[in-house]
Write a sequence for this structure.
């Protein structure tokens, strides 16, 4: 109650009598009890600035407060408990792999690379779009999946087509899922690039982590404090 009065002080101070509804029954008598602590005495001094009365309302009837604190559009996504396990952290799920394969059909670049990697040749390479030719040798096909490996390592990654919803689903698994734990951008980037590949992955991870609602709520922003300055001598 004290927090609310202080929070909305500019609106209610001097505005006339008002009522405070609470499901905490003891607050009705707390302001009138002769046996109070020093902290409560300080609070009562604060309360005297306002013209209000306290009325008790059982929690089951206090639906207005519940509506404000339990907005459905603020609900955080929850993961299916049946999906939490070793498989979710060791390798992509089979359903995700199937969705990646299905999404290749709607990505022009992926279709060209699939065709070339299935039967590589100089003639097939010349048919590729110019922006694909330089790295065409890094791709290969295995069981319908387009795979990519960089020149400087032998890690083979699954190529994710240009499908926004699919990439967001993968980002959720590597950042929001219970087995991920909402880390910063570096950890999910390392884990993501171990299994998947698409262009500008780091930018995707950075943007996704910055926009994560849970991280914005519970993690402190790393802002530097303003330097102290001396006050002018009167």
């Amino acid at each position: 109650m004290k927090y609310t009065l202080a929070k909305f002080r500019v609106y209610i101070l001097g505005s006339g009598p008002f009522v405070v509804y609470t499901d905490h029954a003891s607050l009705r008598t707390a302001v009138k009890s002769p046996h109070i602590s020093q902290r409560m005495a300080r609070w009562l001094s604060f309360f005297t600035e306002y013209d209000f009365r306290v009325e008790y309302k059982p929690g089951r009837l206090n639906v207005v407060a519940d509506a404000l604190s339990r907005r459905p559009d603020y609900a955080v996504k929850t993961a299916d408990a049946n999906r939490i396990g070793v498989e979710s952290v060791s390798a992509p799920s089979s359903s995700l792999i199937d969705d990646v394969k299905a999404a290749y059909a709607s990505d022009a670049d992926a279709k060209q690379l699939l065709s070339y990697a299935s039967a590589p040749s100089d003639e097939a390479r010349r048919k590729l779009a110019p922006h694909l030719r330089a790295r065409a040798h890094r791709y290969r096909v295995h069981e319908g999946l387009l795979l990519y490996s960089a020149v400087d390592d032998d890690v083979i990654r699954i190529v994710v087509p240009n499908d926004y919803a699919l990439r967001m689903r993968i980002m959720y698994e590597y950042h929001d899922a219970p087995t991920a734990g909402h880390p910063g951008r570096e950890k999910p980037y390392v884990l993501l690039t171990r299994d998947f590949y698409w262009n500008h992955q780091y930018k995707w991870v950075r943007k996704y982590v910055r926009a994560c609602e849970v991280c914005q709520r519970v993690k402190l922003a790393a802002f530097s404090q303003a330097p102290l300055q001396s006050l002018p001598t009167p």
Q: What stands out?
A: The longest helix spans residues 164-175. Confidence is low (pLDDT under 50) at residues 81-90. The CA atoms of residues 45 and 97 lie 65 Å apart.
